[in-house]
Sequence to fold (256 residues):
Amino acid sequence: MDQRETTRLLRQVASGEVGVDDAVQRLRQAPFEDLGFAKLDLHRGLRQGIPEVVYGSGKTPEQIRAITAALLAAGQHAVLITRLETDAAAELEAGLDTGMGLEYFPEARIAVAGTMPPPDGMGRIVIATGGTSDQPVAEEAAITAQALGNEIVRLYDVGVAGLHRLLSHTDEIMDASVIIVLAGMEGALASVVAGLADCPVIAVPTSVGYGASYSGLAALLSMLNSCASGVSVVNIDNGFGAGYLASMINHMGVAK
Fold:
């Protein structure tokens, strides 16, 4: 149950649509539900504004299915499942009850069970990549942000090796409320974008590059040492973390 659902419930009690005993029963489900192998944090949406997300890697399809079904039954409209491989997604979809709905995004390795929310952030989140090889991590960020209620603009393959490609999108960059920049190799794109933008830039180093890139470490260090101000950095290949943070920024000041 998130802030909006709790507010809606309290208003229904105030108007007489829902009885006090029924409301108390719904709230009694909190703060967590114990499935034996997992304890679901049903009040995370109420505390943080974003409900619990399921990390799929290392979990069996049966475990993911049980967690997803329990979260949906508790009133969560959409359940985001990250790092979910194609085979596990197929097994999950086959085992879910009809009507729950599951949309799988193979490049992002993300599934969304339930209903994808409409955008309700204060602006657009721009996602820019240095190259096409960064796209899987970029899609993880994009689908995460979309599942959390944001409008996304994708600018793919606009790296510094051909700077004119990026400069052809200055309108989108300057109109953004948050920008996520993903790059491997030397990771220079984040500094360049931050030098053009007046909004927060979230840099994501990717594990793309030749030997001395050290699987993203070179890009990570470059981004941490950005000469442009306003750049924050998440971990290597952490598209989910970037999309989540961008959503939080894009919803600051938005009515709950």
The first strand starts at residue 32 and ends at 34. The CA atoms of residues 120 and 149 lie 6 Å apart.
